[in-house]
Amino acid sequence: MTKLQNWPEWMKTTMSNWKKLHATSIPITFITRVKEFIIPLFLSFFAGGAGSSFSFSRWLFPAILLSLFIYSVVYWLSFRYRMEDDELRIKQGILVKKNRFIRKDRVQSVDITTGIVHRLFGVCKVKIETAGGGTEPEVELVSISLTEAESLKRRLGNGERTDDSKEEQEEEPFTSTFRYRVPGRLIVASGLTSGKVGLVFSAAAALLSQVDQFIPQQFYEKTVGTLVAFSTAALIIIFLTIAVVAWGISVIITFFQYGNFEISKTEQELTIERGILERRQLTLQLERITSVRYVTNPIRQLFGMWAIYVDSAGGGSKEENLSTILLPLGTKKDISYVMEHLLPEAQFPDHINKLPKVAARRYIFRTSILWWVLAVPFLFWVPNGWLYLLVPIFFTYFGWQRYKDSGCLFNDAHCILQTRHVNLSCNVLPKRRIQSLTNSQSLFQEPKKLYSLSAQILATSGGKTFLIKDIDERQRDDAVDWYIGNLRSSKNE
Amino acid sequence: MRRKPANRISRKALSVWRIKGMIETSLLLFILVIAYFFMNDHPLANMVMWGAVTVVLLYGVARVIIWPQLRWKSWRYEVFEKEIELLRGIFIVKHTLIPMTRVQHVDTEQGPIYKRYQLTAVTISTAAGVHEIPALTEELGSSLRDQIAELAGMDENNHE
């Protein structure tokens, strides 16, 4: 506070407008810290339990807990924030005082999360991100009231109604021009077809492999003995049961995470709301979206279903690989309906330019060579090893499919790079968001006059590169002309 | 085929890269020497050791004699009014375009070896990443930096 006299007059007079976080921020911060310190806490707990004498280790656990609690209280006491003109100002810290000013026009995303604990008290967590890499948000308001969050969001938003804060009372003051609710059946379908099954399954397997250490040896031998007696049929049944359970769990997780999925658009703002227990509301500026990706996996493709992901300089979440799911699942019709209202110029393309025929062999080679090499030992040393040949044959086909699915297109304001690894991904990148464009040619590509093309954009994690391999010379020239040719002719961005 | 970017980087880059190559090679050899003291006299261990030494020496030859020449030959750049072009790479030839409007800032960088040879590297930052033009003479480097800064309109607030 000693610096107060140096501060401008207008600031001194408005000092009292600084707001505190809601008191629930104490327990919420505390719980978050405990989660972060779970390993040291766990260790110290057992260290204390083992020593019977009055010792240092006994006090470690309560000491850590207490200091975490004090930290939470101090954090709450020292944290102040306020909206002043077009800036959000934050000061925090006891020993090191930190002041942070965030200009409204630098805000990339506002993320309002209402967890179960939050809901009990009618509060929420607000995360505000500006451009610039890093997985940590610029500002995190651990717990503020819902109305407060709503007014903050509006004031950081597109400049509508910045001064009148009276309107906060209304529950839904939105003047949404577009609102779309993803039907529950599609959320379930997205859970059924998501790659999460594999994750849950491997987690279950890992857990089981840990559990068997705790099962008494005798019991274990007995059961295994019985199992072996039941032969492979029983093992397959058990395996399938685990798979089905894992599948069920993954559907449930998806349902809770993405249930009640709602997209709405107000002016140039896009809001995504989702979640059953923990509700997350993310607000992005539509014009700041740096990539739109239409993604499908082989199973979803069978049913003609796609998901839409978007990248922006902030707002991506960890469970979505630092991107944002715009639409968890939908048919081509759903997609075009949603995109028509949100970003009509970034629609799913009708057609793309396929790769040249000479590229096919390289795609097949890259995808299947390893499996063909592995075939050699199988053919020579494994009885019935020829059966293995199905594997490289499959990957050969898969490589061909990857070639067929790849392509690119350059239209006025967007470039479209479509590639497949396992998932088919059609990436639509706005030209004014591409930070640099690189084309490259390896020694192997040279004789076939093939090139690779990569475009760099800004995403939540920092720079993100989209790459397409083996385009021909004409496509390469198209890309370069598209990117800088236009630049040379038109002066303004 | 398009015209290649006009400018090459300084010939002195060769010396710098050779020194760096030598330092790298000697470091690797040093590690091998230390490893040698911890190894037992098993004939197989000796064979592995000599194999490793050969590999490191071959690497050194490539790094010090062959690679700098190829690398220097491959490097080209040109600064236009509206964009910057970079061309480089031996096995994979990379051609990068950076529009001026995307340039956020330019720096010159000089490490101890560069300083000795009066060289400097120009780094060009966009929102999504950093690009480097290595080994330019000091005068050229700083004038290029200023030129890019001006072309990118850094004094005006016309980009985010």
From TrEMBL, chain A:
Keyword annotations of the record: Membrane, Transmembrane, Transmembrane helix
Membrane-spanning residues: 21-47, 59-79, 186-208, 228-256, 363-380
Pfam families, sorted: bPH_2 (PF03703)
Residues annotated as domain YdbS-like PH: 76-155, 261-334
Protein name as it appears in the record: Putative membrane protein
Species for this entry: Alteribacillus iranensis
UniProtKB/TrEMBL annotation, chain B:
Residue span(s) of domain YdbS-like PH: 72-148
Organism superkingdom: Bacteria
Coiled coil: none
Pfam families: bPH_2
Keyword hit for Nucleotide-binding: no
Transmembrane regions listed in the UniProt entry: 21-39, 45-66
Keywords, sorted A to Z: Membrane, Transmembrane, Transmembrane helix
Protein name per UniProt: YdbS-like PH domain-containing protein
